[in-house]
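User: Sequence recovery, please. Input:
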């Protein structure tokens, strides 16, 4: 899939300059969704876009994934007026994001008293601080439920703490701590009903976005490794061919899983049923878990293939590997595997019953 590594065509470079992510217009405006939060371009296009950006730069992909997610949350849970403003913001090049992580002893809290709405507390891992101008944040209400808030950054004063951001990789994602103490909001800054953010299958099923970006980075490593070996006349080496073959098979497996996830989402978008929701979560769980395993295996094969010399700059492998290792550390991977295991026992039982029934029919 050579298109994943291509540069924006010359004709789109002006559009790329009009948004803070520097993306061509076709990618940036993919955040435009219908009233259900479904991308107007479709899930297949969303998958390709995430893989494209993941292949270019994972720090950028983290921000881009949040841009899509944040805009979809507003589209799905916002009012018609909020959706209209969101579309206008996207058209103006404003970057959305989702900041949902916080410290246990200083969570972001929202106080609603009459017409007064005030935030206190902080968000951590706030990727894109300084770039994102339309973050969607989760804030705790007094009753313990979560409220989505769309923060117009230019209208509020926050305190950004960069001191704790010394990561293994993904340095350029600028995932800082941001304090919102005393920030005052308006009623139309609140998105959806309490608890909207945690609704399924969107909450767990949204993991397919970061898995898609990760797969783009896996493809980048595959392409860069092949080019590195070929340039040194090592493409005829039996062991190098074997490692590259394993990388290729892993990459195609990852893409197949992600296409299955996109298809499950498309089916659910067409008819929002309980069975469809369960299918989305199950397929996405398997996709994200498979992509993680494939990425870890690919990293090991890349390092063995390029050796120590490949980790010396300006070779790209050191930064690419560190970024991917960092980006693979996503929330609740074990919980996803447990859900897969529960589904596995149910599936095995159903298959056993079908096998017994088939055997009985044959005997008859």
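Assistant: Recovered sequence (364 residues):
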């Amino acid at each position: 899939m050579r298109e994943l590594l291509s540069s924006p065509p010359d004709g789109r470079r002006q559009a790329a300059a009009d948004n803070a992510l520097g993306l061509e217009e076709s990618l940036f405006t993919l955040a435009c969704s219908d009233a259900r939060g479904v991308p107007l371009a479709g899930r297949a296009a969303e998958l390709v876009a995430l893989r494209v950006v993941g292949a270019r730069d994972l720090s950028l992909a983290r921000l881009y994934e949040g841009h899509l997610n944040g805009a979809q949350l507003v589209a799905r849970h916002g009012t018609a007026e909020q959706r209209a403003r969101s579309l206008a913001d996207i058209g103006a090049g404003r970057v959305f994001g989702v900041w949902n992580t916080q410290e246990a002893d200083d969570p972001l809290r929202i106080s609603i008293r009459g017409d007064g709405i005030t935030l206190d507390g902080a968000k951590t891992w706030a990727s894109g601080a300084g770039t994102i101008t339309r973050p969607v944040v989760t804030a705790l209400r007094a009753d313990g439920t979560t409220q989505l808030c769309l923060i117009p950054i230019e209208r509020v004063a926050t305190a950004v703490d960069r001191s704790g951001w010394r990561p293994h990789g993904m340095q350029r994602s600028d995932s800082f701590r941001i304090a919102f103490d005393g920030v005052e909001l308006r009623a139309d800054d609140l998105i959806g009903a309490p608890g909207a953010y945690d609704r399924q299958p969107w909450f767990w099923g949204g993991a397919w976005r970061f898995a898609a970006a990760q797969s783009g980075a896996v493809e980048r490593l595959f392409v860069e490794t092949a080019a590195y070996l070929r340039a040194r006349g090592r493409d005829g080496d039996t062991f190098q061919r074997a490692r590259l073959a394993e990388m290729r098979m892993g990459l195609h497996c990852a893409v197949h899983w992600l296409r299955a996830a996109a298809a499950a989402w498309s089916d659910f978008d067409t008819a929002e049923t309980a069975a469809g929701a369960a299918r989305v979560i199950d397929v996405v769980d398997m996709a994200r878990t498979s992509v993680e395993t494939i990425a870890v295996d690919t990293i090991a094969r890349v390092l063995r293939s390029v050796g120590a010399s490949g980790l010396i700059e300006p070779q790209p492998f050191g930064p690419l590997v560190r970024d991917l290792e960092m980006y693979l550390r996503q929330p609740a991977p074990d919980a996803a595997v447990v859900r897969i295991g529960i589904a596995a026992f149910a599936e095995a039982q159903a298959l056993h019953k079908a096998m017994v029934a088939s055997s009985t029919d044959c005997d008859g």
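Residues 1-17 have pLDDT under 50 and may be disordered.
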